[in-house]
Amino acid sequence: MDKAEAAARPPLVMQIFVTSRNDDCYDGGQLKAIKRLTTLAQHRINQDGGIAGRKVVVNFLDDQRLPQSTIENLATAIADPQTIAMIGISNATRAKAALDAKGKDLKASGIPFMSDISVTDLIKDYPNVFTTRASEDEERMPVIAEFVKLAHFERPAFIGIQSLLGSTNFSDSLKEFLSGGLVADHRLQLTNDKLDPSEVAAAVADLKSKNVGIVFLAVGGDRMKDVVKQFQDAGFTPPLFVTGRVDSVTNQGAEAYANDVYQLAWNELPDGYSERLRELISSTPYPSQWIFEGAKNSSAPGWKDATCKPRDEDIPLNVLDIPNMRALSVGAQYADIVSLIAEAARSAETTAEIPDVRNLIVNQLKTGYASGRGIFKGRFDNWSFQPASRAAARTPLIVMLPRGRSRAQLAPIQFLHLRDQSLQRIDTLYADIDLIHAERIDDSEKTFFADFYLSMNDRSGASIEQIEFANAYLEPGSNERQITVRAIHDGGQSAAYPDHMKIYQVTGKFVYAPDLRNYPFDTQRFSIDLRPKPGTTPFIVQPPPQQVRDHVVKVDGWDARDQYVGYDVDFVRTVDAQTLEPSVFPFYKASFAWLMKRETTDYFLRVVVPLAFILIIAYLSIFISTHHFEAIVTIQVTALLSAVALYLALPKIDANIETLSDRMFLFTYFMLSVIIAITIARENKRVEPIRWLKTGLIFLHIVAVPTMVAAMAYYVYLASSV
Fold first, then answer.
1. pLDDT tens for each residue of 217-236
2. In the chain, helix, strand, coil percent, each to 5?
3. Could you give the 3-state DSSP secondary structure of residue 682?
4. What is the dihedral of CA 65, 67, 70, 75, to 10 degrees?
5. DSSP for residue 26
6. β-bridge mates for residue 450, sequence order
7. Which whole number is the average pLDDT over 296-311?
8. Which residues, other chains included, contact 342 with Cβ-Cβ below 8 Å and sequence gap of 6+?
9. Can you point out the beta strands (E) in 219-260?
10. Rounded CA gap, 638 and 628, in Å?
11. Per-residue three-class SS string for 159-196
């Protein structure tokens, strides 16, 4: 079977399980983001030839948070003979109901199912089911247990929900992994999705009487603030470790908690952005197209009882708002999994039948992308899976809300999983870069010079010696980085500088990756990238909040538009040439980035204005009497040659693509050539007797030409105003 015959067969279907909700006042945007980004991934897969030569389509099945709908959706996906894979289902309770009802059929089908189930025990009997969540036993609990040990927390206790599978499973795992278990375990009952305040108060009183050292709280984000208030009212505020987000503790104006609050996190790091998501946003001229959250849910109960409040129309939605970035992150994860499944099936022959392709995908996920051996670098994240549990190999980070504060940050102690499944401690580097000046930006060489202050907290022994500037320029001859470092303060106590702060002034030459498609009306990203220098002492950077960082920066020929700190997980991939054993070692990389828009006053005066006059002169020449035909054509040809000469006189940049400047000149050449061609055609003896044709040429000359020039001018205006 050739590719054409394979492409003519029915498309393969990826079944996407989603969950919509209409009880929130405003849509969080996650469902919209999932649909948009997975559809884009589908288009990329089909452009690359699909799977086994066949097109791929994504089909969305919404359970609306109903267990019966989840069961029916799973049955529908299994019954479709064109189903090549299934993705989704995050709620453990609904997932259990679906697997209990249709697990036998799922197992027999062999369909690779990339779920998002947090309780890995649910999938242990299904060899074709994976989860994008980290394993409780292999990832989460070892990190929590080691953290409790190193932080010297004693007498841990638990408060959770009896009817929620994820909550009860978390409690059972704590008893298994924590040395000494739990001194108290309270599993509360839900009534109409709410907790009984008296039952909560009784649990808090019991914990207070036992003087617990840390409380693990798994009651759901919406109910967390009510439980925390009970702790505060009782005058007992032990450290908390929550399964939701720590910012839920201080939501809706609640006063700051009087002790530290911790959580595990994978994607949302405090005051840092996923570098890959930021690249996605900045790669399009209009970032607003990535805004998914904010639509009003008119059917939400809160609009009837007045608990929902209208948004302030004077405050527009921003793509970088936390809820929108959260939705974008979820959609990006689904899109990555769609791409991963296609990549796992890349070696499938066009003659392969669907059951064979399903088996190939499952085997590749178990072997080619096994933790420590292989990794799939998605457009938004890296993916590999634990061979035993088939759960995503994703070591969580520990985020904390320090006592008395309302801003979260990374905890001082973090961990990284090694190939032998042991944990390596890594420290959080609390650091900031204050860019003073950037100059000599070279678009062809793709380099710039930067002068900046690097400051860091020295409490964990941090030093610039452990940092490598990953994008520092390497001299071709010496292979040395052009970096000069001057120590301003070496930490410790000081009357002049903040205590325990090391401050350095750094000057160097750095590389960047310009996108010159909109040159010279472009916005470029300049960054200082930090990564661990010795592989034995990895770290992760925690920057200060955006609003307290210095936003004043001087860059010759550029206007500073924005700054942020991006993070990414890079990795070292190796293969032992003797044993052929592959291995992957991940490490964190931080990028202090500045978005700069090029100043274009000089370009307007040297290029845009002369081109406009050239076009105007050529256009006005058509109104000269046709008795001076030679003079008319001479003016127009001279205008064309002037435009060519102007282009050749401009400084050249090595863009390797067609820039907006190039398009402007090509358009000018085209319009001048059209003017010349019409001028000649109007004087042609064969055209003159054809009245309608001559009238049409006059219309093109007088109306169409300036209209096209005006359209191009408007296009350039839009590009320059972004």
1. 998 777 888 898 899 989 99
2. 40, 25, 35
3. helix
4. -170
5. B
6. 438, 508
7. 85
8. 45, 48, 50, 51, 56
9. 240-242
10. 15
11. EEECCCHHHHHHHHHHHHHCCCCCCEEEEECEECCEEC
Q: CA 656 to CA 444: how far, in whole Å?
A: 10
Residue count of the chain, please give it.
Answer: 722
Angle at 236 between CA 233 and CA 238, to 5 degrees: 130
Residue 80 · residue 13 · CB < 8 Å: yes
Are 399 and 262 spatial neighbours (Cβ–Cβ below 8 Å)? Answer: yes
Name 157's Cβ contacts closer than 8 Å, sequence gap at least 6.
Answer: 182, 183, 184, 185, 186, 207, 210, 212, 214, 215, 216
Fill in the DSSP letter of residue 472. B
Q: Is 88 exposed, middle or buried (0-12, 13-18, 19+ CB in 10 A)?
A: buried
Alpha-carbon gap, residue 126 to 110, rounded angstroms: 9
720 touches 672 (CB < 8 A) = no
Q: Identify the CA nearest to 357 among candidates 566, 18, 50, 658.
A: 50
Burial of 74 (C-beta count, 10 Å sphere; 0-12/13-18/19+):
buried
Give the integer Cα–Cα distance in Å for 570 and 382. 8
Letter for the amino acid at 678? Answer: I
Residue 578 has pLDDT above 70, yes or no: yes
Q: What percent of the chain has pLDDT over 90?
A: 49
Contact of 427 with 494, CB cutoff 8 Å? no
Q: Please give the DSSP secondary-structure letter assigned to residue 298.
A: T
- Strands (E) across 576-675 are located at 582-598
C-beta contacts of 99-103 below 8 A and 24+ residues apart: 99/123, 99/126, 101/71, 101/74, 101/75, 102/71, 102/74, 102/75, 102/78
pLDDT at 340: 96
Backbone angles phi, psi at 191, to 5 degrees: -125, 115
Distance CA 292, CA 331 (A): 10
Neighbours of 476 (CB within 10 A): 6
* Helix, strand or coil, per DSSP, at residue 85: strand
**Pair of tokens at residue 313:** 């129309």
Maximum pairwise Cα distance, the chain: 107
CA distance linking residue 624 with residue 180, whole number of Å? 98
Residue with tokens 């940092």: 467
Residue 684 has pLDDT above 80, yes or no: no
Is the C-alpha dihedral spanning 719, 275, 380, 400 positive or negative? negative
Which DSSP string corresponds to 333-361?
A: HHHHHHHHHHHHTTT--TT--HHHHHHHH
Bond before 285 cis per omega within 30 degrees: no
If you ran DSSP here, which 8-state letter would residue 247 be given? G
Q: How far is CA 432 from CA 473, 481, 722, in A?
A: 21, 21, 29
What is d(CA 636, CA 638) in angstroms, rounded to the nearest whole number? 5
